[in-house]
Amino acid sequence: MTRRNPKPLDLNATLRQVRDIVITVECAACGRSGQLDRAILLTKHGAAVTFARLRRMAAMGCDRLVSLDGDRCQTRFPCLDGESIVR
């Protein structure tokens, strides 16, 4: 039996740990948001892909991701907050 875990995950979590059909990505700094189809991500990158890697792909071209001050990009995945996590 699968049980939901309310403890949030960090960006080292893998796609295997989040079972949402649609993965939402958003950036508070830019005001951009989008949705990624989990099935397509699984086919293209596999279940072991980390959200850190997905974040880099989603924020590609963002000046805040790679700046002199370090990573100032605010791209995040709401699904890592605990609601969609299974163990």
Notes on the protein architecture:
This protein is an alpha+beta fold and 87 residues long. It has one domain (15-81). It is built from two helices and three strands; from the N terminus they run E-E-H-H-E. It has a three-stranded antiparallel β-sheet. Strand 1 (22-27) and strand 2 (33-37) form a beta hairpin. It is globular.
Q: What is this entry, summarized?
A:
The protein has helices at residues 38-45, 51-58; strands at residues 22-27, 33-37, 75-76. By secondary structure, the chain is an alpha+beta fold. The chain has one domain (15-81).
Can you write the helix and strand succession as a string?
A: EEHHE
Count of helical regions: 2
Describe the global form.
globular
Domain count, please report it.
Answer: 1
Percentage of residues in helical conformation: 10-25%
Low-confidence stretches: none
Average pLDDT, rounded to a whole number, is 83
Q: Structural class, from secondary structure content?
A: alpha+beta
The total of beta strands comes to: 3
Radius of gyration: 13 Å
Taking strands numbered 1, 2, ... along the chain, how are they ordered across the largest sheet? 2-1-3
Q: How much strand?
A: 5-15%
Oligomer: single chain
